[in-house]
Design goal:
Elements (H helix, E strand, L loop, with lengths): L8 H7 L2 E7 L5 E8 L4 E7 L9 H15 L11 E5 L4 E5 L11 H12 L18 H13 L8 H11 L7 E3 L8 E4 L2 E4 L6 E3 L2 H4 L1 H4 L12 H19 L7 H9 L16 H4 L6 E2 L2 E2 H15 L7 H17 L16
Antiparallel strand pairs: 1-2, 2-3, 3-5, 4-5, 6-9, 7-8, 10-11
């Protein structure tokens, strides 16, 4: 892998001449350098590559991230992303403001929730088409979830298929225009002196912000570092999000958090890292094998999500039967595999 920082003459003229560059750890889909500039100053150079499995087209992901950074750049006092200082589309290179990350904090959730709401509130109907619409669960996901219940000999309440069909309709992103990060996981949120800023917008989309607020309850479904959030800080963070959105838009958050969580529950691709998505029916694998991603197994992720959805849908008008099925499925998983662990409750950035 080449380690020389790919900064063109045009970018040098715009942002400065590199004196030293250090290649940082990143996903297979990109290369990232911390660059010291001659005369002082520091920037980050990111190059999008073609690695990363299904859906890894570099040109598309580069265009998506640049578009999202420009939209996110609307936020000021404080910002919610690094400033985009320069681009080189031919080489899929962007130069970004360097951010000093203060590291993990025990009280990270309120700042995270506020920054997430501020990010989501930056766009509206006039921005339609700037980013792809969020891609939600499909009818195939719903059928796979029902097949999982049958494979585990858990009876499916008669109302569940219709509840799932209604869920898919309600999760249609078309009426919503929030700027979604696409992967708002620990590590992609940097705690700076001026607040939380998000990085790595390669999967940014347009849709309902609740699908990302749901990360706190559902266990961070697109992240290797799945974790649970205790009830009190969870309630505080969700209220911070809603209050921030209300103050910025003058409206209450539209949609239903239970729907957003249920949408993540039935997606088998949310059990595996990006490189393995769209390659198999991952829910169908669960009865036969327990595959790990990071520190947590697929069955452990699934038990947590089933419990989260069951908790939210006990008195729900449209998902009550799904919640009962979730309770029964969680009990069956724990009965068959009693060694399954609850998700860790600490910030993954503190893990060894």
């Amino acid at each position: 892998m080449p380690t020389r920082v790919p900064i063109s003459d045009a970018l040098r003229s715009a942002v400065g001449d590199p004196a030293e560059a250090v290649l940082l750890d990143s996903s297979p889909r990109s290369r990232v350098w911390r660059v010291e500039l001659r005369g002082g100053g520091r920037v980050v150079v990111k190059q999008i590559t073609d690695g990363g499995g299904a859906g890894s087209d570099g040109d598309t992901r580069y265009a998506r991230e640049v578009a999202a950074l420009r939209l996110a750049g609307r936020a000021t006092a404080p910002a919610v992303s690094p400033a985009l200082l320069g681009t080189d589309p031919a080489a899929r290179v962007m130069v970004l403001e360097h951010l000093d990350d203060l590291g993990a904090s025990d009280d990270w959730m309120p700042g995270y929730a506020e920054a997430l709401a501020r990010l989501h509130a930056l766009t509206g109907p006039a921005d339609t088409g700037t980013l792809p619409a969020w891609s939600g669960p499909t009818a195939a996901d719903a059928e796979s979830f029902l097949a999982l219940a049958r494979a585990l000999d858990v009876p499916v309440p008669p109302a569940v298929p219709n509840e799932l069909a209604g869920l898919l309709d309600r999760l249609d992103p078309t009426p919503h225009h929030a700027l979604l990060h696409g992967d708002p996981c620990p590590g992609n949120d940097l705690r700076t002196a001026t607040g939380v800023r998000f990085v790595d917008f390669e999967q940014a989309a347009s849709g309902n912000g609740l699908v990302e607020l749901a990360y706190l309850r559902i266990g961070f479904p697109t992240c290797w570092c799945a974790m649970s959030v205790p009830a009190a800080p969870l309630a505080e963070a969700e209220e911070v999000y809603r209050a921030t959105w209300r103050s910025l838009t003058g409206t209450d958050v539209a949609g239903d958090l239970a729907d957003a969580c249920a949408g993540w529950l039935i997606r088998g691709d949310a059990l595996v890292e990006r490189a393995h998505r769209e390659s198999a029916d991952h829910l169908a694998r669960v009865p036969a094998e327990d595959f790990e991603w990071g520190h947590v197994s697929a069955r452990e992720r699934l038990v947590h999500r089933l419990g989260a959805v069951a908790d939210l849908t006990r008195d729900h008008d449209h998902l009550h039967a799904l919640g009962r099925l979730g309770n029964a499925l969680a009990a069956r998983l724990l009965e068959r595999w009693p060694a399954l662990r609850p998700l860790p409750s600490r910030d993954a950035r503190s893990w060894d």
